[in-house]
Amino acid sequence: MARRETGTGGAGVKGARRPEVRLPPLEPWPEGELEPDGDYDGLEFRERDLTGQDGMGARFMDCALTGCAVDETALGRARVLDSVLTGLRGVGTRLAEATLRDVELVDARLGGTQLHGAVLERVVIRGGKIDYLNLREARLKDVVFESCVLVEPDFAGARLERVEFLDCALKGADFGGATLKDVDLRGAAPLEITRGLDRLSGAVISTGQLLDLAPVLAASMGIRVL
C-alpha cells in the first residue's frame, strides 16, 4: 500500500502529495499474454515483451513492471494501483481513459503514449524521456514530473491540480484549454510553451522563466516589441 505524503510547495502554491509505494513479496508473472479485463495482483513482470498485447480494462494492483516492452500495448481503461513501473520502453502505448493511482513511473523511454482522458492521482514520473505524451482532457492531481524530459506533451483541455515539475525539461508543451490549480513550473528548464499561455493563471513560474516567455507572451497578446 502507499503512504501519502504532503509536498513542500512554497510561494503560495500547494505541493503535490507523493506516493510511497511499498510492494509486498511478488510472484513472477507466468508465461502468457495479457487478457482484456484481466486481474493482476502482487505480480512481477520482468523483461517481458508485451508488444501489441491486449490488456484493455485490466487491473494491476501491487505490481512491478520492470524493463518491459510496451509498443502498441492496449491498456485503455486499465487501472494501475499501488505499483512501480521501471524502465518501460515503447511507442504508441494505449492508455486512454486509464487510471493510475499511487504509481511510480521510473526511467521510462516512451513515445506517443496515449493517456487522453486518463486519471492520474498521486503519481511520480521520475527520470527518462517521453516524447509526444498525449494527456488531452486528462485529470492530474498530486502528480510530480521529476528529472525527466517531456517533448511536446499535450495537456490540452486537461485539469491539473497540485502538479510539480522538478528539474524537468518541458519542450513544446500545449496547455490550450487546460485548467491549472497549484501547478509549480519553476523547476522546468527549459520551459517551452507553444500554446495555452493564457491558461497559466493557476501556475507559478520564476522571474527568469517569465523573461524567457516574454516574447511568446507578447506575440500572443498582439504586442510588437521593437
From TrEMBL:
Acidic residues composition bias: residue spans: 30-41
Alphabetized Pfam families for the sequence: Pentapeptide, Pentapeptide_4
Region spans: Disordered: 1-41
Gene3D superfamilies referenced in this protein's UniProt entry, alphabetically: E3 ubiquitin-protein ligase SopA
Signal peptide residue numbers: none
UniProt superkingdom: Bacteria
PANTHER family: BTB_POZ DOMAIN-CONTAINING PROTEIN KCTD9
Name of protein: Pentapeptide repeat-containing protein
Organism: Streptomyces bangladeshensis
